[in-house]
Amino acid sequence: MQAVQITQYGGSEVLTPADVDLPVPGPGQAVVEIAAAGVNFIDVYHRMGRYPTPLPFIPGVEAAGRVVALGPDVAGVAIGDRVGWAMTPGAYAQAAAVPVDRLVPLPDGVSDETAAAVLLQGMTAHFLTHDVHPVRAGDTVLVHAAAGGMGLLLTQLVTHLGGRVVGTVSTEAKEHLARNAGAAEVIRYDQVDDLAAQVRALTGGEGVAAVYDGVGASTFDASLASLRRRGVLALYGAASGPVPPVDPLRLMQAGSVVLTRPTLGDFVVSRQELLERATDVLGRVDAGTLHVSIGGRYPLAEAARAHDDLTSRRTTGKLLLIP
């Protein structure tokens, strides 16, 4: 089968198209024929070796498709079932062997492409808004990169929960996307010198209840300075690079705020938790109350271009690889 393989860490050029053997399902596994795979920043971190993975490996941790083979000791999944998954490697390929307890059944009204575009980011947005800082009616929160795949989902969920979103974007076109998703206020990175001061001006000097920051190094200081007393800074990614070490005294000086670096794996630990969170996200998509924006589709052989487009911030919405 066709796949993308990494034999050494590095830039996008290490994403090498390759012919590899079809996977054979082991105990408790199913082989899924992949219809679409999500492209995420965690794939970039794996590619660069920031999150070391034994070499060689097939990158990609999110996909959707149809079950075509079952291993021993499998229950609850049948050949022909439409399923999706997140946080399990091997998605940049025509097929992958996946532990059955990590597979999520897909509603008839949610396409394979939509599922591959929403599972990882949708469940991440869900735990950020429901668990890390449960949004309450009247909360104002700051969402960085509000026109990206994560930003659009976060903005919609916060708005549905009764919160008010201040979003940051880099272009006029992205501003329109963020506002259409529900952002009450949008700040252009390229038009302000002091982002935190602008956020405070929009909140009557108080600051925001929470900041959802997937950008990292370039936004961290402004994020911290934008919080209200006892606010929460949820640093869920580092698209611009890792944040340098932080003196805990800064959290006290900012108003006894909370800094957390959460990851999806800790919020879908049990199968029950995975199914509850995925069912809520997919149910909202199926009902039309959560819109998924797909910003680009690429063949497997162009995985490097997809990574370059993602990291250059030239795109909006979610990027997919189509085997």
Describe this structure in words.
The protein is of the alpha/beta class. Helix content is 30%, strand content 26%. It contains nine helices and 15 strands. Strands 3, 4, 5, 6, 7, 14 and 15 form a seven-stranded mixed β-sheet that branches. α9 links the parallel β14 and β15. α2 packs across α3 (149-160) and α2 crosses α8 (271-287). The radius of gyration is 20 Å and the shape is globular.
Question: What structural category do the secondary elements indicate?
Answer: alpha/beta
Which sheet architecture does the biggest sheet show?
7 strands, mixed
Question: Ends: how far apart?
Answer: 10 Å
**Which segments are poorly predicted (pLDDT under 50) over 5 or more consecutive residues?**
none
E-strand count: 15
